[in-house]
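Comment thread on ticket #2218

A.B. wrote:
> Attaching the input chain for the structure job we discussed in standup.
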Amino acid sequence: MTTRTIRTEGQLASWLAFLRARPLPITVSAVKGETRSSQQNRTAHMWYGEVSRQTGDEPGAVKGYCKAKFGLPIMKRDAPEWLAKYEPMYLPLDYQTRIALFEIIPLTSRMKLPQMMEYMDAVQRHYIQQGIALTDPDPMAG
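C.D. wrote:
> Ran it. Output below, let me know if you need it in another format.
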């Protein structure tokens, strides 16, 4: 599957040319908004590592915990179709197994920019309140 984020008329023209070159039939979907940025993704993973080093928890367990504690409520609110797909998998599981599942289940990768900002704000608030230092990335970095 090919996905593009289109921000300019030139990018739109390139995407249309790409589609015209494909043999028919094809299925095309469009979603308003923009997925999380690569900077947000890098920062979240940096934070999982920082929390891991300061708590002794495995980075994957930190990631699973954050996704379950902070990401899941956002997805429950904003993506009922996602919830309907994944809830039957994780609801019957015990807490530790749920955290392990959330290490690998696609959740934050499905978030749009504002959702990922909300998620990261919640993660940062949570760990700062616990006295865990997280690097505040350069907002000008790409």
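A.B. wrote:
> Thanks. Noting for the ticket: The CA atoms of residues 74 and 115 lie 7 Å apart.
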